[in-house]
Specification:
Elements (H helix, E strand, L loop, with lengths): L8 E3 L19 E3 L19 E3 L19 E3 L19 E3 L19 E3 L19 E3 L19 E3 L9 H5 L8 E3 L7 H13 L3 E3 L4
């Protein structure tokens, strides 16, 4: 592989790869799939500034700093790794799809400038504060299930939302969703396994349903 420097697409998912050093000279790469391997060191990817689509989920990755120069990338799938620091993603402002599910993330503030994001998956992490999501006004799909979130006020202005999964958190009050004028007919909201208060169960959920929203919940 080390001699194939003009390659623009490579798919090596579901193997037993642990060393990707031979990829370091492939600076023209645009699409790279290395999912379901045994990779921990992704430093050989650091020079791939033409990258547009990368899928490296289900590996053993902790450090994603080699990805920081991929300013053209539009889609990242980084789920099922051991990532806690996502600051290297802060400058990747062309991202439209980002999957960081099943990692060890608690600080999502580096996402604040990624305003082109339309789909974001942060499921199964250690997130409490989602205030930064207020900036991501183009989001259509948002999955933040299985975290430790109680306050969802930052979702008020995300009027493009079509799918919102926030199950298994610490949410009591969903009035923010009722006050979001963009959540309506054909949209989907999943609220199961949250300690919703009585008003949310008896008033807010019926209000959303009356607007044509499909709501799943655990209310009695």
């Amino acid at each position: 592989l080390s001699e194939m420097t003009n390659m623009t697409e490579l798919r090596l998912g579901s193997n037993q790869i642990s060393d990707i050093g031979s990829l370091s000279g492939m600076l023209n790469m645009k699409t790279l799939h290395l999912y379901e391997n045994q990779i921990s060191n992704i430093s050989p990817l650091s020079g791939m500034t033409n990258m547009e689509n990368i899928a490296i989920y289900d590996n053993k990755i902790i450090d994603i700093s080699p990805l920081s120069g991929m300013r053209n990338v539009s889609s990242f799938t980084l789920s099922i790794n051991q990532i806690s620091d996502i600051s290297p993603l802060s400058g990747l402002t062309n991202l439209t799809r980002l999957d960081l599910s099943k990692n060890q993330i608690n600080d999502i503030s580096p996402l604040s400038g990624l305003t082109k994001l339309t789909n974001l998956n942060l499921r199964i992490n250690q997130i409490i504060d989602i205030s930064v999501l207020a900036n991501l006004i183009n989001l259509k799909g948002l999955i933040i299930s299985y975290n430790q979130i109680a306050n969802i006020n930052s979702l008020h202005g995300l009027t493009d939302l079509e799918m919102l999964w926030i199950e298994a958190n610490q949410i009591n009050d969903i009035s923010t969703l009722v006050n979001n004028s963009g959540i309506g007919n054909g949209d989907e909201v999943s609220l199961t396994d949250n300690p919703l208060n009585t008003t949310s169960c008896t008033q807010h959920i019926p209000t959303l349903e009356s607007r044509g929203v499909t709501v799943t919940h655990s209310c009695p």
